[in-house]
């Protein structure tokens, strides 16, 4: 899976600041965001389903992925 | 006599549609307060006017009793011209920060001195004073605003003080030990002098809320009242103390007297704001020299520990907390001090706070003596729903990370959970906001709320409108 569209949030939390734990995927068709587990994204071979436009696509075809 | 400004009567007229006047006699001993307790349980908050208050001996007192004056948040906010009670904190903070000095009028322009009873003519037992709760030891004035002054500067102070009527011209009263009135009292007593004091009862809620403004020492409350009124408060020199102690000219009743030096009497137990009986304490006494009142005076009573007293107190706290937080946390939106938390809890909402901003704000407000726990939430949470607050606590807090605790701070010593012998309290600030956004243009790394769509919800609400639901289970 190409890594250039994946942003991995830092786990380091200076001074105990709040950090969210939710990963997001941006659909390549409608640009809508939906949240998904890091597990399904990292498998690479399981098609993701956009809950906005119902397009199915592999993680490598996502516009952007933000992994928490 | 021409009326010059807002008073209790103008408020009762403004809200006449929300005043309930029960038919027939209602006993001063517990029965009036029982009405308030039952209404609180139903979450109904009309103003109550008792036109036939019945004394313990069965006689009807000719002076009407008004209570529940400020039990409703909506009515209390509206008294200040605030149409949405949720916006009260910002308005209160702004207006009390822009004080208007009082003016002094002569006795002929002061309705509260239409009737003057000096010496033996003055009789506290002629007033329709309530015995509110089963374990109260006797009748208490609960809406008596005690005005004293600092002998070093002459600056006056006013605060609500409970007063146990013990004899025609004698009552104990209880200024909280850390209060400004206690400081004034102790200064007089240190010189072995009696402390002059005047207690006034009954005014427009704007004035009542102004007297509860949390000020520095010494600082008069009259100008804060003016800020809320939008015009100078009218004062008149008291009969006993002259211009050393002024009282509101448009009040209903004034009780004047002296607290003899270093004289203490038992006071209480008394039903307190905590929802428990406060312990019996040693309290000063007031030896009454004079009572003045309007010709057709109305007696105001606050239901202690009920919405009637908690709501105005708590709304003033909201203004104070807003004023403490806003300069250091611009994202603060609203503050609610809920009746469910008595005076101990405050809920504060934030709109997209910056990193660290919520915790800065929590630290600032924890310094406020009255707070015990402050819960910060995002502005999607309804501050006026305890259920919403519990939702935020359940889903947005990791306790070790998100809770600031502090020990050894000033607070209420009436908290039944205090450690034995403790003179200070433990406090907590809870950051129940969601984590902030980290990537511009990407969602916050938190899950979205689940809900039906707006159109479907609107349709559902329309379907439910007008249906008879009285037999549906509520639990």
Could you give the topology of this structure?
The complex is a heterodimer of chains A (68) and B (475).
Chain A: E1 6-8, E2 24-26, E3 33-35, H1 38-43, E4 48-49, E5 56-57, E6 64-67
Chain B: H1 8-14, E1 19-20, E2 26-27, H2 31-42, E3 47-50, E4 53-54, E5 64-67, H3 73-79, H4 88-96, E6 103-104, E7 115-118, E8 140-141, E9 145-149, E10 156-160, E11 163-167, E12 170-173, H5 180-190, E13 195-201, H6 205-210, H7 222-229, E14 234-238, E15 242-248, E16 253-259, E17 265-267, E18 270-271, E19 277-278, E20 281-283, E21 285-293, E22 298-300, H8 307-325, E23 332-336, E24 345-350, H9 357-366, E25 373-378, H10 386-396, H11 399-402, E26 403-409, E27 425-432, H12 454-464
Helix pairs in contact in B: 4-8
Q: Main sheet of chain B?
A: 9 strands, antiparallel
Would you report the number of β strands of chain A?
Answer: 6
Strand portion of chain B, in percent?
A: 25-35%
Helix/sheet category of chain A? mainly beta
N- to C-terminal separation of chain B? 56 Å
Rg measurement of chain A, Å: 13 Å
Classification by helices and strands of chain B? alpha+beta
Q: How far apart are the first and last residues' alpha carbons of chain A, in Å?
A: 18 Å
Sequence of strands across the biggest β-sheet of chain A? 1-6-2-3
Helical element count of chain A?
Answer: 1
Helix and strand sequence of chain A? EEEHEEE
In what range is the share of β-strand residues of chain A?
Answer: 25-35%
Inertia-based shape of chain A = elongated
Give unreliable regions of chain B as ranges: none
Shape of chain B: globular
The most extensive interface between chains reads: A-B, 18 and 18 residues
> Spans of chain A of 5+ residues with little confidence (pLDDT < 50)?
none
Q: Which percent range fits the helix content of chain B?
A: 10-25%
Describe this structure in words.
Chain A has 68 residues and is mainly beta. Chain A has one domain (6-67). In chain A, 9% of the residues lie in helices and 25% in strands. Chain A contains 1 helix and 6 strands, in the order βββαβββ. Chain A has one helix at 38-43; strands spanning 6-8, 24-26, 33-35, 48-49, 56-57, 64-67. Chain B is of the alpha+beta class and 475 residues long. Helix content of chain B is 24%, strand content 25%. Chain B has 12 helices and 27 strands. In chain B, the strands form 7 sheets. In chain B, strands 7, 8, 9, 10, 11, 12, 13, 16 and 21 form a 9-stranded antiparallel beta sheet that branches. A 5-stranded mixed beta sheet of chain B has the order 23-24-25-27-26. A 4-stranded mixed beta sheet of chain B has the order 1-3-5-22, with no helix packed on it. In chain B, helix 4 crosses helix 8. The radius of gyration of chain B is 24 Å and the shape is globular. Chain B starts with 7 loop residues before the first helix and ends in an 11-residue tail after the last helix. In chain B, 47% of the residues are buried. At the A-B interface, loops of A face loops of B.
């Amino acid at each position: 899976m190409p890594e250039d569209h994946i942003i991995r949030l830092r786990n380091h939390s200076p001074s105990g600041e709040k950090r969210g734990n939710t990963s997001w995927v941006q659909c390549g068709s409608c640009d809508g965001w939906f949240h998904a587990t890091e597990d399904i994204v990292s498998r690479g071979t399981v098609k993701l389903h956009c809950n906005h436009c119902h397009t199915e696509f592999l993680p490598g075809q996502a516009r952007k992925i933000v992994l928490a | 006599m021409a009326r010059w400004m807002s008073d209790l009567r103008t408020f009762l007229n403004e809200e006449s549609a929300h005043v309930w006047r029960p038919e027939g006699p209602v006993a001063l001993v517990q029965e009036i307060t029982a009405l308030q307790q039952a209404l609180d349980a139903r979450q109904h908050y009309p103003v109550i006017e008792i036109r036939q208050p019945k004394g313990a001996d069965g006689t009807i007192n000719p002076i009407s009793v008004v209570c529940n004056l400020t039990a409703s948040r909506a009515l209390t906010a509206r008294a200040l011209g605030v149409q949405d009670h949720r916006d009260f904190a910002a308005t209160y903070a702004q207006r009390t920060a822009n004080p208007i000095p009082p003016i002094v009028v002569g006795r002929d322009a002061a309705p509260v001195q239409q009737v003057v009873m000096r010496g033996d003519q003055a009789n506290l037992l002629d007033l329709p004073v309530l015995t509110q709760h089963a374990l109260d030891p006797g009748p208490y004035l609960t809406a008596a605003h005690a005005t004293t002054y600092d002998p070093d500067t002459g600056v006056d102070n006013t605060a609500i003080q409970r007063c146990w009527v013990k004899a025609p011209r004698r009552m104990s009263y209880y200024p909280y030990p850390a209060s400004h009135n206690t400081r004034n009292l102790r200064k007089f007593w240190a010189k072995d002098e009696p402390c002059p004091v005047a207690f006034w009862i009954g005014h427009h809620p704007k004035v009542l809320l102004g007297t509860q403004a949390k000020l520095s020492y010494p600082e008069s409350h009259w100008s804060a009242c003016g800020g809320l009124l939008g015009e100078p408060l009218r004062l008149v020199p008291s009969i006993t103390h002259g211009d050393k102690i002024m009282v509101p000219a448009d009040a209903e009743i004034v009780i004047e007297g002296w607290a003899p030096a270093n004289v203490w009497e038992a006071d209480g137990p008394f039903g307190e704001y905590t929802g428990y009986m406060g312990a019996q304490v040693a309290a000063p006494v007031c030896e009454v020299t004079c009572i003045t009142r309007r010709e057709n005076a109305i007696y105001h009573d606050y239901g202690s520990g009920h919405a009637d007293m908690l709501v105005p107190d708590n709304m003033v706290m909201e203004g104070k907390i807003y004023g403490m937080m806003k300069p250091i946390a611009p994202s603060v939106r609203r503050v609610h001090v809920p009746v469910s938390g008595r005076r101990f809890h405050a809920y504060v909402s934030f709109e997209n706070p910056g990193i660290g901003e919520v915790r800065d704000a929590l630290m600032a407000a924890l310094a406020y003596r009255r707070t015990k726990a402050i819960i910060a939430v995002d502005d999607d949470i309804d501050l006026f729903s305890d259920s919403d607050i519990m939702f935020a606590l359940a889903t947005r807090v990791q306790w070790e990370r998100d809770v600031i605790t502090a020990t050894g701070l000033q607070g209420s010593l009436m908290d039944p959970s205090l450690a034995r012998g403790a003179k200070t309290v433990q406090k907590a600030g809870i950051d129940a906001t969601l984590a902030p956004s980290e990537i511009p243009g990407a969602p916050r790394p938190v899950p979205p709320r689940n809900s039906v769509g707006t159109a479907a919800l609107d349709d559902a609400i329309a379907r439910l409108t007008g249906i008879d639901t009285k037999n549906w289970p509520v639990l």
